[in-house]
Amino acid sequence: MEKTKRFFKEIFSWLIYMAIWLAVLFTFYHYVAQPFSVDGSSMEHTLEDGEKVWMWKLSDIERFDVVIFPQPNPLPGKEPKLYVKRVIGVPGDKIAYQDDQLIINGQMVDEFYLDEKAQEYQANGGGNFTEDFEMYKYTGEDVVPEGKFFVMGDNRQNSVDGRTFGLIDSDSVIGKATFIYWPLKNFGKLPDYDLNSQGDAIVLE
Q: Which one-letter DSSP state was computed for residue 28?
């Protein structure tokens, strides 16, 4: 009888232990971070199709962060896909492109994180990697309003992004892609970028 009691006590303790760990894992996945699998080529060569990344949910999203969010305006009855894109414009920004250069608030800046894909495209006979436009053309806004972001894929010739669906709600962002964990050859943290204090160059943070 004593052995039976001890057995059930151990089982109960084990179940409590497992329940605690499941609660911790659920909390971590739901509120802190979760894995995400890249689907498609819109972020080449920053992120490749099939790569697996951790997205961090506690980050304050900033300009040039790579973010994950639900597909805007999904087809009726269809589960929205998760998109991964780069934040190009944050509230207060006026965005334009001219001669393959990003212009933020009147300052022309070099998006060097696009170099590999852009050079590949141009080596195959392509022209400007990013077409000329002013953000108003796609969003109806001169500047990014509060609570919104303007996002684009790094593969500018093959990306459904702000040029198609306009601005996204900042509240719709699930998390920031921070770390590639698969495949192992690409294992590592994604770089963080920002504008310099003059607003005329993108720099590594």
A: I
Tokens at residue 185, please? 């050859």
- End-to-end Cα spacing for the chain: 65
46 residue type, one letter = T
Locate the DSSP E strands across the chain: 33-37, 52-56, 66-70, 82-89, 95-98, 101-104, 107-109, 133-134, 148-152, 168-169, 175-182, 188-189, 193-195, 202-204
The CB density around residue 81, as the number of other CB atoms within 10 Å, is 11
How far, rounded to the nearest angstrom, does the alpha carbon of residue 101 sit from its chain's CA centroid? 21
C-alpha–C-alpha distance, residues 33 and 38, integer Å: 16
The two structure tokens encoding residue 102:
């990003």
Q: Which residues are catalytic?
A: 42, 85
**Collapsing DSSP states into helix, strand and coil, what is residue 30?**
helix
Which of 181, 28, 149 minimizes the C-alpha distance to 83? Answer: 149
- Classify residue 14 by its DSSP letter: H
Give me the percent of the chain exceeding a pLDDT of 70. Answer: 88
Give the tokens for residue 127.
């022209």
Q: Note the pLDDT tens digit of each residue in 92-141.
A: 999 999 999 999 999 999 999 999 999 999 999 999 999 999 999 999 99
What single letter denotes the amino acid at residue 204? L
Using the predicted structure, report yes or no on whether residue 17 has a pLDDT greater than 70.
no
Distance in angstroms (rounded) separating the CA atoms of residues 194 and 132 = 23
Q: What whole-number distance in Å separates Cα of residue 32 and Cα of residue 134? A: 36
